């Protein structure tokens, strides 16, 4: 062969960088014929800011952001003549993006499941590579050593779960390492009066959720490492990939224990260690829900990215929200199944338990089949029903693939850490926005463009109440707020028998003219709440938290401790729970830096605000020794009690502890709670015993006109629940009694009893808490310790000072003595809130 005649095709790179000019040069082969106005606006704005390291492009789902992202990616390839990634959440979306690129004549490579397609396009800088988050963020990624010029993160609003999963070591309850790891922390949970929860967790109770304090993780890190290596977590990809990130940083990782398994992960993602986040790499974030600065910080560690939000209504799908009739959740589900018996429907539940109630006729989605199961369902032409347990992102069923979505119950966090933040620590500034993002993600599963139309059924009283609250709605996009309120008004029309749910459903699915007119004439008439802007102090704290964590992760412990202490002090006046969280991490930074006294002070101060963070074993004086002692009215009341009863006070506290530890009979428990309140220097009484109305026990701190109403429900069986009539309704009666008898005072509302489900048909006060009885046992023990030391002091001044030190050191000061106890909002206990799939 004459090699001089080989048909060589030289690579011809396009130098055009304006994305609109690139579009004009393309050979269009599919549905794309031109650029819509919002797409053009987004591309023009990005082109003006293309030099910036971080740009967020916010466009509605179905608004054409995929084409925008592809044109930006190609523009950056042309400009840099280097490697550019386009990153998607799932393989399904990788295929969709690659298909869109093919329709537009844009040459791309793909990489998923360890396999390349058209790799040379990427390596020779002809076009970008389309891949998924797992491929980019796993610890053995092929892209780590690449000189990456730019990365486009598609669906950035759902990226957190996908990225966090790569840094999370999951040990399912069936894993050989599970019980060995858990047993390392038994002594701590026993000391902190959480034995029952710990045993429940070992026995598989998914409601059990335990945070292993960082001082215990620090102490047990070597043993944890040995157990994990012994059981081979470093080998299989599902554990081996995150293990490579975490193996040398276990002391800086959160460990959460649950009946479903154990998760070990950093509190924030150390993405600053990855090459994609260096200053020379440009990042573009495509998002359907413009995240708050806080959300971006917690996922990507990025401060103040440049936002681009084009106008127009592209992606504004027509949605009918239906609130089915039924007095119970089961009744609502039956109504929905009847209305959709001949329709295909996607069902999203908050837990495996709720998913099972839909099967049959529904089929539960199995992660093992993944993309193929979704494809089969999308292509089916019958009345199939697919139920997804706690899966709010990564699944797309646009257009005719599915037009009916059923949301059952409030969505919960996908990871144990998210659940702990939301339901354990209850960081309120994050809870509502997290919930709104999950709901928006869920709705986006079937609505992908402004030509989409369909129905969303809302099942579960907890979800219905959440969506009906204007304070929650303000976290949702404007059109979604209007559509929800339109649906609430249509429910009134159904209740008044002016129409039926079946008639409305038929109208939207068949696109009937009368429905279109009803919708277009009315939906925009509903008022909307402005999306809240994070206060400046909170945004600054999160910026500083990211900085402090990066120092901690990198081993700069002294600097991390100083920064954590500073942000804890700044948070204290605004949010004591948030301050306690920062204080706990200050303690860890001191701990790792070998400053034991400073570590103990920080840990104890955190525990005095939030007992869920764990109380280390310590001696009195560690906190208050560094503070000026000014005895409080509470301390003076306790001194008066000691002068009156002397050593009898200690024997009484022993009796209190015994009665609370038993707990089988409510009357002794109520008496013990009354006596405990008095021992704490509070005005304590049992209103129900004398008048037959009011709470079982009332503690009052008359100095500031506050108190707590305690209702003892300690005789509940493990299989029972808190019911609408006997438990929750009873507390509503107590609220009326309190308003009548103590109108100028405010009270915390507490059910003293086991952590059980609250019936979904009940309507608990939003701030009603359930506190396990063993928490009051621990409170009695600490009170006894405080008074025992005080009684040993020689005179009244010394006794008084000792009492005040004990109140501060042992978390007994009002109101932290009650607010710090491990508690669960009744609203969070309405139905199961397991994380869905087994940890695997």
Whole-number total of structural domains? 5
CATH class of the largest domain: Alpha Beta
- Average pLDDT figure: 85
Count up the helices. Answer: 35
Uncertain runs are 832-840
Radius of gyration: 29 Å
Give the helix level as a range of percent.
Answer: 40-55%
Describe this structure in words.
- The protein folds into 5 domains: 3-163 and 272-308, P-loop containing nucleotide triphosphate hydrolases (Rossmann fold), CATH 3.40.50; 169-265, no CATH class; 318-525, P-loop containing nucleotide triphosphate hydrolases (Rossmann fold, 3-Layer(aba) Sandwich), CATH 3.40.50; 548-618; 633-829, Restriction Endonuclease (3-Layer(aba) Sandwich).
- With 840 residues, the protein is of the alpha/beta class.
- The radius of gyration is 29 Å and the shape is globular.
- It has an 8-stranded mixed sheet. Strands 13-18-17-14-16-15 form a 6-stranded parallel sheet. The chain has a 6-stranded mixed sheet with strand order 19-20-21-22-23-24, with helices on both faces.
């Amino acid at each position: 062969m004459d090699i001089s005649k080989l048909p060589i095709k030289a690579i011809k790179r396009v130098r055009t960088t304006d994305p609109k000019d690139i579009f004009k040069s393309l050979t269009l082969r599919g549905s794309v014929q031109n650029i819509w106005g919002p797409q053009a606006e987004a591309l023009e704005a990005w082109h003006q800011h293309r030099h910036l390291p971080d740009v967020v492009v916010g466009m509605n789902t179905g608004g054409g952001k995929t084409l925008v992202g592809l044109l930006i990616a190609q523009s950056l390839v042309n400009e840099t003549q280097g490697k550019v990634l386009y990153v998607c959440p799932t393989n399904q979306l990788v295929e969709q993006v690659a298909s869109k690129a093919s329709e537009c004549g844009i040459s791309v490579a793909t990489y998923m499941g360890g396999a390349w397609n058209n790799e040379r396009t990427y390596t020779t800088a002809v076009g970008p590579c389309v891949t998924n988050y797992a491929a980019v963020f796993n610890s053995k990624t092929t892209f780590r050593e690449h000189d990456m010029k730019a990365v486009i993160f598609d669906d950035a609003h759902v990226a957190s779960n996908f990225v966090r999963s790569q840094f999370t070591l999951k040990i399912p309850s069936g894993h050989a390492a599970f019980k060995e790891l858990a047993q390392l922390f038994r002594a701590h949970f026993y000391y902190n009066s959480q034995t029952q929860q710990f045993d429940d967790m070992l026995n598989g109770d998914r409601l059990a959720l335990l945070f292993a304090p960082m001082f215990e993780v620090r102490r047990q890190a070597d043993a944890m490492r040995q157990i994990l290596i012994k059981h081979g977590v470093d080998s299989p990809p599902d554990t081996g990939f995150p293990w490579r990130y975490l193996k040398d940083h276990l002391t800086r990782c959160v460990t959460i224990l649950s009946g479903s398994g154990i998760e070990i992960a950093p509190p924030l993602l150390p993405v600053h260690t990855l090459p994609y986040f260096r200053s020379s790499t440009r990042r573009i974030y495509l998002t359907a829900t413009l995240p708050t600065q806080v959300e971006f910080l917690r996922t990507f560690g990025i401060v103040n990215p440049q936002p681009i939000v084009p106008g127009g209504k592209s992606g504004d799908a027509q949605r009918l929200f239906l609130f089915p009739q039924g007095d119970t959740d089961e009744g609502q589900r039956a109504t929905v199944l009847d209305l959709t018996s001949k329709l295909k429907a996607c069902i999203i539940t908050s837990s495996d338990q709720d998913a099972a109630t839909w099967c049959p006729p529904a089929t539960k989605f199995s992660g093992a089949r993944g993309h193929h199961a979704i494809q089969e369902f999308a292509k089916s032409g019958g009345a199939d029903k697919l139920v997804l347990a706690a899966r709010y992102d990564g699944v797309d069923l646009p257009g005719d693939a599915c037009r009916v979505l059923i949301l059952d119950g409030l969505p919960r966090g996908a990871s144990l850490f998210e659940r702990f933040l939301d339901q354990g620590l209850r960081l309120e500034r994050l809870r509502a926005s997290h919930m709104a993002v999950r709901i928006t993600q869920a709705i986006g599963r079937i609505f992908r463009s402004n030509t989409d139309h369909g129905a969303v059924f809302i099942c579960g009283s907890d979800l219905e109440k959440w969506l009906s609250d204007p304070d929650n709605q303000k976290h949702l996009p404007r059109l979604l707020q209007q559509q929800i309120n339109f649906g609430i008004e249509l429910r009134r029309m159904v209740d008044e028998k002016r129409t039926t749910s079946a008639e409305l459903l038929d109208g939207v699915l068949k696109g009937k003219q009368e429905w279109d007119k009803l919708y277009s004439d009315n939906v925009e008439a509903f008022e909307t709440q402005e999306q809240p802007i994070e206060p400046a102090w909170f945004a600054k704290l999160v910026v500083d938290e990211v900085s402090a964590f990066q120092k901690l992760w990198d081993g700069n412990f002294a600097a991390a401790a100083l920064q954590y202490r500073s942000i804890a002090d700044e948070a204290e006046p605004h949010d004591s729970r948030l301050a306690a969280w920062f204080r706990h991490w200050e303690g860890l930074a001191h701990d790792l830096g070998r400053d034991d006294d400073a570590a103990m002070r920080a840990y104890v101060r955190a525990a005095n605000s939030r007992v869920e963070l764990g109380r280390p074993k310590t001696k009195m004086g560690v906190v208050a020794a560094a503070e000026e002692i000014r005895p409080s009215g509470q301390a003076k009341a306790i001194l008066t009690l000691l002068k009156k009863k002397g050593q009898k006070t200690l024997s009484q506290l022993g009796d209190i502890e015994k009665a609370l530890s038993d707990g089988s009979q409510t009357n002794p428990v109520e008496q013990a709670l009354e006596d405990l309140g008095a021992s704490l220097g509070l005005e304590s009484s049992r209103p129900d015993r004398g008048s037959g109305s009011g709470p079982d026990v009332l503690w009052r701190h008359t100095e500031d006109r506050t108190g707590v109403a305690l209702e003892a429900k300690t005789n509940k069986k493990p299989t029972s629940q808190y019911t609408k009539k006997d438990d929750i309704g009873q507390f509503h009666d107590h609220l009326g009694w309190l308003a009548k008898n103590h109108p100028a005072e405010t009270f915390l509302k507490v059910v003293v009893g086991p952590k059980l489900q609250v019936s979904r048909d009940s309507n608990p006060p939003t701030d009603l808490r359930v506190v396990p009885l063993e928490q009051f046992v621990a409170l009695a023990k600490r009170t006894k310790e405080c008074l025992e030391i005080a009684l040993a002091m020689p005179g009244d001044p010394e006794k008084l000072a000792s009492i005040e030190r004990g109140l501060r050191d042992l978390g007994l000061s009002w109101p932290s003595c009650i607010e710090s106890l491990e508690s669960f909002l009744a609203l969070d206990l309405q139905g199961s809130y397991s994380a869905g799939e087994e940890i695997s």
